[in-house]
Amino acid sequence: MSTQMEITYTFNAPRELVFKAFTESQHLRNWWGPKGWDFQVAKADFQPGGVFHYSQKPADGGDIMWVKFEYSEIVTSEKIVYTSFFSDEEGNVVRAPFDANWPLKTLNTLTFIEDKGKTTLTTIIVPVSPTEEEYKTFFSSREIVQDGFSGTYDQLAEYLKI
Questions:
Q1: How far does the chain reach from its first CA to its final CA, in angstroms?
Q2: Predicted confidence (pLDDT) per residue in 72-119, tens digit
Q3: Angle in degrees, CA 13, 153, 66, rounded to 5
Q4: CATH no., domain 5-160
């Protein structure tokens, strides 16, 4: 069984622009997260050792979810590596609100490759130290995760046309 999920998406935009959309909160707030959800940035420090902490709330008025990224590597226009997890408002790790068996943390590696003015983004997601149950939950959710990222990347593709 594979130990990672891989999602590839090609944007009709230059690499520097796509990279900026991931590392500048004034861009991120316009496209990140589920469509139609309210998105608020609590902290955005895009550098190794920095964090991105945000909340998102469903349009139907459901509960606010907090998420935090901890950046370990950023190579301008080429690569972003971060650990992500659901958090409370203070940024402490909490269980995913949708499944108690979701891995507490995932390691995310994004690589940006430009070819003829288009940028291919490869996202690799690996659970960090999962239990057997968390591992099973993560991989049984492959389609949901893929759909979630594809929907978010569709929103970025639309945003980049502006």
A1: 41
A2: 999 999 999 999 999 999 999 999 988 999 999 999 999 999 999 999
A3: 130
A4: 3.30.530.20
